[in-house]
Automatic annotation (TrEMBL):
One of its GO terms (molecular function) is cytokine activity. Residues 179-329 form the THD domain. One of its GO terms (biological process) is immune response. It comes from Mizuhopecten yessoensis (Japanese scallop). SMART domains: TNF. This is Tumor necrosis factor ligand superfamily member 6. Belongs to the tumor necrosis factor family. One of its GO terms (cellular component) is membrane.
Amino acid sequence: MITNDFPSEVRYEEVAPPIYRNHCTPVSTGISHRFLLPLSSKRSTDRYAKILIIVAILLALSCVLLAIFTALLFAKLERVRGDLSDYSNTIADRKICFLCAQLNVSQFDPDGKAALKLLDVTLDDNGNDVCCASDARQTKSLFELVYKKQPKTTCLKGTANPETPCDSSLPSPTTTGMSAAHLIAGLQSMGNDADTAHIRNWRTDDVTTYLEGLQLIKDRLVIKDTGLYLVYSQIYFSKNVAATALRSAVLLKHSVYRYNVIYPNSGNQALMDSHGTMIFDPVTAHSALTSFTAAALHLVVGDQIYVTVSNMSLVSGDEKASFLGVVKFE
């Protein structure tokens, strides 16, 4: 016998499987934030580390470049220091030198001889005496000797400027109507002794000189009136001989010429010649030779009188000892 045991009403809750819920742990998205936050911090740390590495590399490169620059700077400073040291040594060894023949030293001038003894005297490649100054005392003596060679400042009395300093020892210029001249040889330029040279720098400003009725043009006396003239000239040769030098001799020539376009030989005509032998003896320590020549000559307008010598380096620095004179006979 079948019985009907089914209930008359079945509810869903009784048939469906039970659903278990965890009411203590709510569903939330906060779990993803907890996992993402450490990842972002790591990336930032890596980025900062890279920046620090780059900065460190740049600092290292800067230090290397600075070290190289410093080394180069010190090397350059060492070169500059060496150059300055060489220059200072050069300055210390540098001397002021003149040929002794160019200095105004006479055998009869004790002050000049004393000043000359203070200088260092050596020989150049041509065997000429060279007077040098290497300190303040010697330089002072050398410049004093050179200054004596400079033309003296003259002053004409009655000048427009009364404040102009005058040398009362110099006489006022006078006019006598004569044609006469007496010139002394000033400082000469040293040339090649193998060639004949003209005596130049004739001085007319010394108290012992005279010039009237003639003209001095380019170291030549120009005749302005035709007539009979006395022409004379003297050249004084001198040289200090080193104690170690060998005994030797040289032939010297001293000539007086005139130039005019009317004469042959391109207008140059020899008037007088003087020859002499100068002996260099180390025993005497000084050698000298005086060459003098004179003659009465008929000169015409336009004649130019000049003097030549051989071995210009041997011409003495004593300007009073070398001269040229022309006097017209009335």
